[in-house]
Amino acid sequence: RSQQREFIPNLFGDLYYNQLKTRFSRIHPTLLRGSRVIIKTWYFPIVPAEAPSNVSAKAESTTSIRVTWGKLPWNKVHANITHYFIQWFNRSSQQPKGNFTVSSNIFQYVIEGLEVYKNYSVQVKAMAKSGSGPFSDLVNTSTHLPGSLKFTYID
Question: What is the separation, in whole angstroms, between the first and last Cα of the chain?
């Protein structure tokens, strides 16, 4: 028996199949000795195939960042998305600073309680009941610098 895994793109997305080949004579030795039978089993992957699209992160204040993202392309969903997982890092050390999950119908989140004027990296992934898809690329941003004082010169 040999197993072969192949990738077949089609109109409905990425569809995979396992192809098992066996000698027909092993199934029923008296019939057509030496003939081959090909058995194909088709299945869809059960986790999201891609990361959320158009992930962006922008400073909301001196201690918060707004993260936004788009839906997965319809042909890459492959599962019922239950929520999105957002995680953020200190950009200089790449140490995790926190994470949060939001419902599948929400496409933005404001990370609060961050340090003033610090650099952060953020990434997002889609989650399904059966597992998670890949993380988005890291998006870099920083919190705002505290406001400066304004002086008016009067002569």
Answer: 94
> Is it the case that residue 6 has pLDDT exceeding 60?
no
Distance CA 16, CA 1 (A): 19
Distance, in Å, from the CA atom of 114 to the CA atom of 135, rounded to the nearest integer, reads 22
Nearest to 75 by CA among 130, 10, 131, 5: 10
Query: DSSP letters of 33-57?
Result: TT-EEEEEEEE--SS-SSPPEEEEE
Against a cut of 0.85, is the pTM above it? no
The region of weakest confidence among 14-18, 72-76, 120-124 is 14-18
The token duo for 62 is 């001196």
C-alpha–C-alpha distance, residues 79 and 9, integer Å: 17
Answer yes or no: are the C-beta atoms of 78 and 13 closer than 8 Å.
yes
pLDDT in tens, 34-78: 555 555 555 556 788 899 999 999 999 999 999 999 998 888 887
User: How far is 88 from 136, CA to CA, in rounded Å?
Assistant: 12
Per-residue tokens: 139? 């998006």
Q: Give every strand in the sheet of 13-23, ordered side by side.
A: 2-10, 13-23, 36-43
